[in-house]
Amino acid sequence: MSKKFNLRRFAADNVVVIIFLVLTAAATPVSGLSAGYIIQEIVTRIGRNSFLVFSLILPVMAGMGLNFGMVLGAMAGEIGLIFAVDWNIIGVPGLIFANLVGLPIAVFLGWICGEVLNRARGREMVTGFILGFFMDGLYQFVVLYLMGGVIPMRSAAITLSRGYGIRNTLNLDSVRQSLDRLLEIRIAGVAVPAATLGIIGALCLFIVWFRKTKLGQDMRAIGQDQVVSNSAGIPVERTRIVAIVISTVLAMVGQIIFLQNMGNMATYNAHRQTGFFAVAAILVGGASVTKATIPNVFVGVVLLHLMYIVMPRAGAELFGSAQIGEYFRDAFSYGAIALALVLHAWRKQRGVEIARAGLRGSAAEGVGVKEAAL
Amino acid sequence: MSDASRIKSKAVAGRRAAFRAALAAAYLAAAAWAFVGGRGHTILLDNKSAEDGSYAAFRTVEASVNGGEVQQLSMRERVKAVAVGQRLRVKASANGRTFEGEARIPFGEDIILVSLPKLAAGIEPFWEPFRSEPAPRPAAEDEAPPSLEAAPSIGG
User: Does the structure show a pLDDT above 50 at B61?
Assistant: First the structure.
């Protein structure tokens, strides 16, 4: 039996997407940017950012919410890139080398993160968020004091003048856009980084396949109900750790793809906003703390970046200052996170109330109506 | 546990161990390939005469490294090129003649000096490792300390 389309329910489910759609639709003509420019920027940014956002899907599937701990993976990717630059490994082999160096670090950090999150059940998001800050401190210690001192570095160009520690900004010339330019196709004047998009496509296929595997099914079951899953013999804790490890590894690869496109790296800051950005993107795409899909990633990256592209120009046109547009875009990005989290909490609360009413057996028909409205 | 299930679990464990070993071997092989095959080396193409007069510089010479960009050098000039991997192939042309030379860059060497007149004169080796004094590090007061503040704007 097909369900009847309910406009109110559709709007309630997609309120964040609708807000962003309205905002960008209003700002785009004001910005005065050409369609060609916007399309080119969007294509570039899909290649640059999507992989990072995809790293959030598996923990959501396993019921662990949005993995703010993905910052750990980003740090692992940055360490890999530091070594690739230090050894002057050029082009795609440099990226592969960075991935291979970052992989064991990401797995280790992911495992630690998973263990910690298992002990903070129900508060995974805030725990992952704070864990990111803690690990950031360790990262600063390793990169600022151990590299060049305890960990030998070959290149004087990347170490600080005192002989140890890595410089503030790392020039990634040796790997700059090497993946994007590996296979660049021009379609109607738009440069499409086919190799990068191909890797993102492969990741999509992996996620689709992974959902159907035993491990994927276990994750989905755990996402639904941990107690029932445990009773059914699913190793809940181990599966949750695996979800976080995969997420951390994907974040590592995503950060390397992101930085090779940017061409330079703020050694001590580049990873700090990674989690915020990825979470904002997936939420803007219509995902929630309990449900995230592949289309959510693409819709979110496109909408969020469309706003990033047009807002500064719209601000400049409207108020004579691009800075105001910059403030807008940051405010709306963080606002999207807040709104999505509030909506999730509200829906959860409503669900509990309806379930309670159902148990009381009062107004069964009314409950049905309320459920439809949720 | 029955014999059949014990044999089966042994076989599974064996398969799992073999898979893990193959994975580790693939990881190491990929790392070695990226490390050796992807390393960039600075190649200094040199067009200078020998002090003992055994070979003379060209007025102008064109040269490329590993099929890369062709660069033109005047007399007593030195230009920089990049070679990826351990293989070095230099192609030069001057006075209507073309010269080619190949070499393997020793592992651990970062900069190689290639003498084009030497290559043209057929003197081997036409290259030598180039080791310069390390560039003076900038004084500590000239260098901004690492900033842990001012994270980049969201989304990059």
Answer: yes
